[in-house]
Every structure is written in C-alpha cells, then in structure tokens.
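Journal club side-thread
Mid-discussion, someone asked how the predicted structure for our own chain would compare to the paper's figures. Pasting it here so we can look after the session.
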Amino acid sequence: MSNDFFSDLLASISERGRNLLRLGPASVDAKQNASDLIELCGELLSGRGEASGTAIARGVLDRYHQLDEAGRLTFFETLAQKYGPDPDKLEKAIEAWRAKPTGDGAGELHFASEPQRQELFRRLNRAPGATSELVKMRADLLDLKSSNKDLAAVDRDVVHLLASWFNRGFLVLRRIDWSTPAIILEKVIKYEAVHEIHDWDDLRRRIDPVDRRCYAFFHPALVDEPLIFVEVALTETIPGAIAPLLAEDRQPVAIARARTAVFYSISNCQRGLGGISFGNFLIKQVVEELRRELPKLDTFVTLSPVPGFMTWLKRAPDLPISEEERALLAHLDNTDWINDAPLTAQLRAVIEPLAAHYFLKAKTPRGGPVDSVARFHLGNGARLERIDWLGDVSPKGLRESAGLMVNYLYRLDDIEKNHEAYADHYEIAASSAVKKLLKTEGRRLLDMRLG
C-alpha cells in the first residue's frame, strides 16, 4: 500500500477523534493557544484511544503553529520543568533496584527514569504529517536553546527520538537528475549550502551531464524532503579548484575516461535534524553505487571548503610566523591581493605551511581538529590528501579560507583503519605532501630563532 493510503487513513482517524472530542480549531489568540496546548499535552499523556489520541496530537501541533516566540519558549520551558521523569515512580524503582539489583529491576529503573516528554513526543508523532512538523519544532527549539540553557535537556530528548526515527535503516538513497520532480529540484537549489546554485540552468549543469551525479537520502515520512544530498563530478584526475568543475562552458568528461569521483558539495537540508549524522553513511553508500555503475573508477576524493581558516588565522594568538609575515597577512583583509602576482606568491609561502599547522596541530578543547569539515571527513576514515592553493577564488572562498580548498581521499582499503585511529586518539591520516608543508613551517621557525 502507498504512503498516501496510510496518510489518508491517519487523517480519517484524526478527524473522527476530533469529532468525538468536539475538539475545535486552534484559536487566533496566541496566549490562549499556549495554555490550551499545555493542557492538551496532559490529556495526550493521560492515555486515550487511538482515534482520540491522534486527534489530540493533531490539536497540540495545530496550537503550536499559532504560538509566537514567547509562546514557544513557554511551551518548551514547561516541558523542561514539568515533563521530566515521574519522581514517585523513579524513587520506587531506585529503592527496588537497591533492594534487589536484578535485570528486571534495571529495566524498571530505565523506564522510570525516562522523561515524560519523550512519551509525549512519541504520541505527537501519531498525527498525520507529524514527523515533519516535529523536525521543524526541533529547529525552533535550537533557536531558543542558544539563549536558554534550561532547554538543553528537552533538546537532548528530542534528538534521542529523532536519531531513532531517522535511523540509517529507514533512509532511502535516491539519485537526483533532471527527471526528478520539480518540487525536489527546487529544494536542492534552496538547500545547497557550499556552492550556491544560481538558477535552473546552473542546477541542470550539475545534475544532467553524463559526468555529473547527485544523490540524496530520503525518509518515508518526508517523501519530498531530501535530508542530505551530495553532488559528484566524474573526472580524469583529482581536481585542485572548484571553478573548472562549475564553469558554464566546460566540456563534459567522457565516462570511458573517468577514473575519479569528486564529492564537491554535501548539504544538510533539515536544520531540525542538526547533530544527527547522515553524511558518513551517504558518502560510503554513494561510493558503492558508483563502483557498481562505473567499475573503472578507482579514486574517491572530496574537493572541500575550509570555512574556518580565516577566522582561526585572525584569532590564533600563537601563530608560528614572524612579525614581517604577520604584517603580510594583513593584505588578506582586502581581496584585491588575488590580482597582485608577486604578493600572491609571497602569501602562498606563508599560508600553505600555516594551513598544514591548522589541520594537523590546531586542536579543539576535546583534542580534535578545529576545522569542522576536517572532523567530518577524518572521522569517516578519509585521509587529508592535498591542500589546494587558490582552489576557491570566489568572494566567499577568499573571505572564509584565503582561497584554500582541500582534498580528502577515501581509499577503501584504509577507511576502517583511519577511522579507528581517529576515533581512538584523534590521529590524523595525512599524505606526505601535507606533512612536508608542516616540516617547511618547522624549518622556518628554526631559522627565525637562529636569526
């Protein structure tokens, strides 16, 4: 049976429940809706039949949509303060466990310690279309949580549920091409987060030619909403710049000559699913798809941005450079430096070793690389293969990374080994070329000290 059939069935159940309960539409008064919503949440948890429960869930979601920001804050604060674990049940479970620490007692303790808001969200998810609405609700929660630390527990519970509902086993990989429905193509344009898609012609150049691929994960509950997508270019060799891949007048590469698959853009589409990782599964499954389709492909590599490099360069207090070199870096504040060949050469001699330091030595408080893109790919088992000077000379690329891009190599025989080394010790797999840049930095520092 189709998803439409089940959607219609759920809608019918919800409507019958609404009629049975005489549950009217949401009020236009936002304050009243906040009060009604909280009252309905209590009713939803009190345990009713399927029809009435579905109707109440629909009522809660309808009233939530009517809330302004203050009303949403009140709602989430109520969940944080009044919908935690049941204190009486938890106390009894603790006492029972202490008296007799058995497997059954541990199970009872586990269920008693679960916050009531988790069950509330499960019951809300019974309403037609609720999964999509709960993902959007979580996006609202993220906005409010940034200035309200008390909401962290609510967010943790929502993420726990969403991670289960969007488990890899439920996701469907689909190729996106020019025959894909327009409603999905529009969202690819909207959600592209790395290299902006300017119009429909630009989109077609990325998904229609013979040497281009685009894949996305979908979830059965969000049929026309991609969760994450990756854009792939098939090339003869590893590229070092993004402009030739996106050029309007480029000539497609004949499939017979393609040996390299380049993942040049990965975009998450649902902000409400932030923190729930799909990208690692996506890349690995796309690699398998491409290998089946094109057995001659032997290299799988990214062409990745370095969005935090300029921020680090400006804020790092202990850059391993001389005062003269620090003064040279001041030219980066004005993107005109790209048009001055001698200055560009001077900057390259300073920036490339600093980039190697940034990737291999600069750490977060937890010990991982400071670059978020690096954490993603290295955590997936990739190797830091090459730092590409002037890989992205767009205004955004110059502003965020001084034009740098990076290739991460997914060598299939080494992925698991690299992943384990990174997961256990934050050990970074890097090519000899990148390590050599770091040695260049070391020699320069020694010269500075001796001088």
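Post-session note: The longest strand covers residues 260-268.
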